[in-house]
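Follow-up to my post from last week.
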Amino acid sequence: MNDNGTIITLTYREAIKQAIRDALNRDEKVFLMGEDVGRYGGAFAVSKGLLKEFGPDRIMDVPLSESGFVGAGIGAALGGMRPIVEIMTVNFSLLAFDQIANNAATLLHMSGGQLNVPVVIRMNSGTGRQLAAQHSHSWEPLFAHIPGLKVLSVGTHEDARAMLLTALTDPDPVIIFEYTSMLNIEQEISSEVQPVDIRRAKVRKEGQDISIITYGPGVYKTLEAATELSEAGIDAEVLDLRVLRPLDEKTIMASVAKTHRALIVEEAWQSVSISSEVSARITEKCFYELDAPVQRLCGIEVPMPYPKHLEDASIPQKDQIVAIVKKILQHEGV
Amino acid sequence: MIGQPASKIKKLPMNKQLGQALLYQMMLIRRFEEKSAEMYTKEKIRGFLHLYIGEEAVATGVMHALKPEDNVLCTYREHGQALARGVDPGAIMAEMYGKQEGCSRGRGGSMHLFDVSKKFFGGNAIVGSHLPLAVGLALADKKMERKQITCCFFGEGAAAEGEFHEAMNLASLWEVPVLFVCENNQYAMGTALRYSHANIDLEKKAPGYGISSATVDGMDLLAVMKAAQDASKQVRKTGKPFFLVCNTYRFRAHSMFDAELYREKSEVEDWKKRDPIAQFVKYLKKHELLSDKEMKIMAQRIEEEVQKAVDFAEAGTWEPFEDLLKFVYSENS
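User reply:
Got it. Predicted complex:
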């Protein structure tokens, strides 16, 4: 915590909004474009009030043309602007996948280094609101598959407050996943904005017995599980990946080398996921440090069902994290 | 549907120097493409190779209406546009060879020619994908109060893509200066216009978006020049988009893998009677702007320039394996 900062309480939503406001104030080239970001105030009220504050040239409502406006954002970045493109939810990002995978991620390379694409694309993601199969996607693994992109996941309020600002200093396309289910959560953070290093994963809680590696909505859930585990005498380390591409191997391996056990928790479907990659790399890079096989707790491989009890059963929950950690550590009473 | 021929259009100012420069440009494109085909059969050029032969009047005529500060975006059939924009022929040939002296350091090949110093933003090989980029470049210019326009070439195949319609709507909605140039060469790969568009009068797509439009005979250089001048002038003046359809024809196959099963040889021969280069030579000779001797000297100069490009590519070097991961992220480029 910065010595100069006082402690403030704010929601994840408010943290993102303040980050956008800071970005707009810092650089005239920055503008926000997205569906309903202006007059409506943002589908999730993240940008509420910003239109009045900054005007329609900097808070641009766009038509429902994901490929069109994401492509235009990429083009504007090529033309020297600093666009923040908001895709209302990750679920619609597939309509813009061509622009992201074929243009944003490749132009630097195809041009032999002549073009940069300094675009930031934010999208609300994830599960937990009974929105059923088409509105509950966790597409982090899809984007993290693509060389040329930097893929970030906002798992805490500190990151919600500052990650965007670092992303806007990056010369390459940055995809930022934010989480709808976290928007209303309140947390205490320092009023002083702490710079976020978007190349590094972050240990959210230090521990000795096991590394629980996660990102996004898994972070708070895992911290809660870690608290419960500590009551049972298990000292878990919680590692927030934060950057899903390129992965911060150094921090991951350092944690595993310390605890000798790893559990990876994510909401995305298990097959060909972030956890698949992290697990493979741990096995490749520090197999001999392991005292137990790497375990994973991921989304169940089913299109998201609508009923609450089935939705909850489709993604990792705190109690499951606690139970699997106890099992890995062969804790008494399991 | 062919579009207005030059004879029906107000006379363009033409003189010997300009006329011969334009002819040189079209003949250079054709000879360059013939040489590329030859180098493809010799396996010096690999991958996909899409030749521009037959369509030379479109790139030459439109590019003449553009200024150096204007942005240009193209499809994967873009050698003609690159040459007409002034990208070095040697750098283009070296790019197709995959040599690091190429205009994209060899990373792109035939379909991805880039030269940012010429405001040439590529060869894009996903049909329709560069149209939103063009709108974005024009949006940046508008926001930064720069006066240039953005010219975006694409084929009639792209006009069936969603990205075409999204880009047209955005350009008109945001009032950004994009000159959309639809090169209708009658075939989306092997699918004829009538099999891919419910309304084959392509120009009619523009009014639905409130965009001004024109159709021109793309085999007639003077007609293309005039139409492009008028269109670009309007875009500069209004800051709004314009949709220009150039009806043209590729004499060669879609790519080097195409057996041309979808069109009759007689159709190709009919279009060849309207060869843009032959037509323009006829025009220049009729107006005594070109002699046989000058034509012969020009052909010789072009032969030398194309050979020079090949020599440059041959002498080029391969990027070392150690550089493989360059240009993925900026910090390693």
